[in-house]
Amino acid sequence: MRMRMILGMFLCLPATMGVAGDRVYQTPEAFVDEAFHGVPPAASALWLQPQLRTELGDILGHKPALRVRYWGAGSRTAWIFDEIGKTHPITTGVVVNTGAIEDIRVLVFRESRGWEVKHPFFTDQFHDVRLADNQKSDRHLLDRQIDGITGATFSVRSMKRVARAALFLHAHTQTSAGSLAQAR
Amino acid sequence: MRRTQFLLLLTLGLIMRSVGAAEVTLDEIWELLQAQQTQITALTEALARTTTRLDATTNELVENTRAAAITRQHVAATADYLDDIQTGGGDSKTSLGGYGELHYSRLDADDSARDLTEVDFHRFVMMFGHEFSERVRFFSEFEIEHSLVKDTDDGSNGGEVEIEQAFIEFDLNENHYARAGLFLLPVGILNETHEPPTFYGVERNDVENIIIPSTWWEAGVGTGGRYDNGLSWDFALHSGLAMPTSGSSAFRIRSGRQKVAHASANDLAYTLRVKYTGIPGVELSGSYQHQQDPSQLGNDGLDEGNLLSIHGIWQRGPLTLRALWAQWRFEGSAVAAADVDKQTGWYIEPSVKFRVAQNEWGIYTRYEDLDGARTRDRFEQWELGLNYWPSDNVVLKVDYRNREHAESIDGGRDFKAFDLGLGYHF
């Protein structure tokens, strides 16, 4: 009986894999398009000066790239990050508006566990989150607690790092041109 | 031109006579006009030179602008190349990770012959993964326990080298998956998530060691679903336990793990889990496992085994509360005669996290109550401890344990222990 169950499950596998859909929940292009209501600006590149790169590295826990690509119009910016959860990168999109998170979304999820972070019941916690205004801390922490998910500890941490990074970088796109170099 | 200048001079002379101005000679006026003409000529020539220079500068500016655009392209390409080097190729499909833990324990037992002071690198784990496509991926976990494995006749050296995970996972659609291979069973809290920075206590809790024999993996096939409302389910058909029915480990659940090493597959088992995580900070889960013959042998007085495990986790801000209950029920004359046909364990663990000097600390306490197969596995234990995370993925631990056994025969095993631990994950 059990061997028949095993055989049955294996035989059903190819048929079910033909159904549309996988862990690419939304393409980065579609995310940016939605963030700017169908009229996305051209991509910009925020070049990371040494100090900026150091601070961003402290947030992400690793040395970042030389520049970070983003899309910006007025007080709204959109960012796409690929940050490791437990063992695989999670592609996350973040929209920041006037210094607060407007939207955060898992675009591609590759882990075997921690899937909960893609759902609104988790990501809704990030709406209107800002960086804490703490003069004693240079760690750029969020201004509120984000409740975690036990089996998704590493995915949750990845999302929180991404949120911090997006808010941090957004602030630097809003400063004067003398403090950063941008190239389109 | 000369006629014009003469007429102008004449006019000026007449005007000056008529208004009675101081007398200026025509020669003086002529000289003034010539000087002004010289200036005009010089200015005209200077303007022509300036215009020429401006044209040249404009051309240079256009060339520089074009060169700057090319330079920007080169810089961008260089940055892309350097970024790729830093990220190991950017789109690498293969991942590498790991975790490990070092323990120091000082155990003072009521029977001093059972005192123990030791240091042990309990686990060194490497995880490899690969993404074959967006829908098919590989996960694996390779572990060395207790630092060293020696080839002894009776296997008494204590170390282990083992594969804890090696499976392929397939995305069936956005909400469902299937997997095949060697994987961790969906039971309990720690069995699937046990990296040192994720739990309190130097050693894992005893309920999820003795009753749920974590880390517990089997070979088989599985499937499951995850939904927007936070509900999920997992079902697996897999190799089963091969519990001994005689000797000092008779009917001991942990001794039944075959670890997919030439494992008997005469009798398979299946596990079903339902979990709810639809509220941030809350997890409610229940697992059920059935195996028709947990010893893989017939007519030995152990006929059927059923595991039921439920747990809840509540987290709000810095506070967390975990509670788990698990029970095995066995059928069979021999297991009933040994009075171990029901083996139960539960624990409750409140904890609080706080920040000191920008780093995270946590204090916890845990109460466990176990009723296992062996008398030494029937005890109550209080535990109190502290975790310090200098980094998200590194933890230092200290704890104090107080264990009291249920039966007087094991009174000598009662102990108080002090433990230190170092753990990491990457």
Outline the structure in words:
The complex is a heterodimer of chains A (184) and B (426). Chain A has helices spanning 2-17, 28-35, 50-60, 120-123, 153-173, and strands at residues 43-47, 67-73, 76-84, 89-97, 100-108, 181-183. In chain A, 33% of the residues lie in helices and 23% in strands. With 426 residues, chain B is of the alpha+beta class. Chain B has 2 domains: 2-85; 96-425, Porin. Chain B contains 4 helices and 16 strands. Chain B has a 16-stranded antiparallel barrel. Classes of the chains: A alpha+beta (184), B alpha+beta (426).
CATH topology of the largest domain in chain B: Porin
Please tell me what the overall shape of chain B is: elongated
Main structural class of chain B: alpha+beta
- Please state how the strands of the largest beta sheet of chain B are arranged side by side: 1-2-3-4-5-6-7-8-9-10-11-12-13-14-15-16
Percent in helix of chain A:
25-40%
**Level-2 CATH architecture of the largest domain in chain B:** Beta Barrel
Oligomer: heterodimer
CATH class of the largest domain in chain B: Mainly Beta
Please indicate the percent range of residues of chain A in DSSP E strands (runs of 2 or more).
15-25%
Overall tally of domains of chain B: 2
Globular, elongated, flat, extended or rod-shaped: what is the shape of chain A? globular
Which strand-content bin applies to the residues of chain B?
A: over 45%
Distance between the termini of chain B: 93 Å
Instruction: Give the overall pLDDT of chain A as a whole number.
Output: 81
Total strands of chain A: 6
Q: What's the rounded overall pLDDT mean of chain B?
A: 91
Write the element-wise H/E pattern of chain B from the N-terminal end onward.
HHEEEEEHEEEEEEHEEEEE
Strand order of the largest sheet of chain A: 5-4-3-2-1-6
Number of helices of chain B: 4
**CATH homology superfamily of the largest domain in chain B:** Porin
Uncertain stretches of 5 or more adjacent residues of chain A: 13-22, 176-184
